[in-house]
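Agenda item 2: guanine complex prediction
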Amino acid sequence: MAKILDGKFLRDKIIENLKNKVNSLKIKPGLAVVLIGDNPASQVYVKNKILACHKIGFYSEQILLSVKASKDEIFSHLERLNKSTKIHGILVQYPLPDYLSYLEKEINEFINPQKDVDCFNPINVGKMFLSKSNDEKIFFPCTPKGIITLLKHYQIDISGKKAVIVGRSNLVGKPAAFMLCNEGATVTVAHSKTKNLFEVASQADILVVAVGKKNFIKKEAVKKDAVVIDVGINRDGKNIYGDIDYNDVFEKPSYITPVPGGVGPMTIASLMENVFLGYEIQMR
Ligand code: GUN
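Presented output:
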């Protein structure tokens, strides 16, 4: 039977640590979150990010732009935030509304690399590529960083393990692959074009699933005693489901992340750590 990797517990611990560090600071670390449009899931994520800032004592700004926001309007906000001495981290919540999605690359390149708490600017992506995940001076993207923090907290060895990541997004799959590889795992990235995907997944000692499909992975795709990490947040009515069919697979893994309460809270904890890192970099 699987042990639970409790992301909520660890998030609260990380938030408490940051709160103690921030307490004595005169100038507080600051995060700006930009939300364009009215995607309900994004509204919830942004609310949770701002709430975490309040809990720690970070300064925060929410920039809520209409779905009809112009390119000029978006970039003039980003320019101000890039220059603001109150702001040490900038995050533009994705996905952008469809008709603005062509701007994603330009936005990532425009955000001041020292404030790029998402680690989406190509300069920071390059640094991540070249670094071990225990390098405390560089940004790592929040979800993969949270996954590695969770594995380390539960003293789960990564080095020498076979890791399979299902999903190849820039947000999670690709950076998770680099980071696990840099930790000594033998990494396979499987995705929608992979032949025999479930068989590939079933060979993993560490299985990370980030495809955005409710209950996509069943027990046949999970090796006995694997460590199973579910990145999915799939809303169906009032409920949230992971990419892994939790009840179906539960007897097989040694460890599993619940949804909700696993990777989601760790993403927020990592974001807060990155805001603090941005502060340290800029106050040097
Ligand atoms: N949308 C879903 N996850 C994320 C994230 O980590 N950062 C941003 N900016 N948008 C997201």
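Discussion summary: The first strand starts at residue 3 and ends at 4.
Owner for follow-up: CH.
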